[in-house]
Amino acid sequence: MTGIIDVHTHYVPKGWPDLSTAAGGGSRWPWLRVDSERDAMIMIGSDEFRRIGENCWSGERRLAEMDRDGISAQVVSPTPVFFCYDRPVDQAVRVSRIFNDLALEICAADPDRLLPFCQVPLQDPDAACAELDRCVTAGHRGVEIGNHVGDRDLDDAGIEMFLRHCAERNVPVFVHPWDMPDSPRLQRWMARWLTGMPAETHLSILAMILGGAFDRLPRNLRICFAHGGGSFAFWIGRVDNAWQRRPDVVGTSRQPPSSYVDRFYVDSVVFDPRALRLLVDTIGPDRVMLGSDHPYPLGEQPPGQVIRANPLLSDSEKAALLGGNAQTFLGATPPGS
Ligand code: CO
Question: What is the pTM of this model?
Fold first, then answer.
């Protein structure tokens, strides 16, 4: 795998069994209302969630768009609304298996360029580890997880056990915000996506630092946070100040929070060249990777533009962000190489 690698894209399969008839299915199951050959609506029960196109489910269409956009390979991750962490574990296991197997079918169009990341029933760490192992054996290249399971953050003992398992299996982890808090104030202007997602990701990085997860987990864990790590990079000074000034409450990590930035990766989808420069300066030029959130509306078009057209990055930094760092993160050689 060489060239330009997009580590943050999503898929939705075109067809899956009617989950509402599953044992104990109940209401509000995700399903796809196919409106034409090229358009569909993700439905949650009877509610419209998001309009999508065939570039979600067609491997050939994805490859054509990658050729158009100059992308060599892309990580193909689940769409978080299908995680099902709030359901009984047997239902979440069933959904994970269905979607993970369908992801392999999409990526079969070119397994060297379409790199599937699986989802796991993270509410049950043992079941999550089992599904991860099944998927890695079947051809998945990593795992995407939500940034929390209900009130449990990434420093929860069970989730930490799963992350340790990923490190032991040498499997990269992509953390995506999801299940953002809701209120009438957050229902305007996509506020849950515009302010909620960056805050959620910031909180998850803090949980791994201040919750001690990075102190306990092995250094070889490769974990990446979506959307440039949310608001974390801009506010790391505030967190360090709090760690120094309020050690009674915040001083729960062995080292100052800013010293943990070499333990994780972030993607580049921050849109503004100055924001990306700050991210590279804060997290490190070897820790930021092209991610676009393709093909969704809040993603970057064309993917990687904020890197390629950025006058504040050197050529060597651009090369690292466009593909070199992702090769390290993915940690695998392609089949046949
Ligand atoms: Co995304």
Answer: 0.95
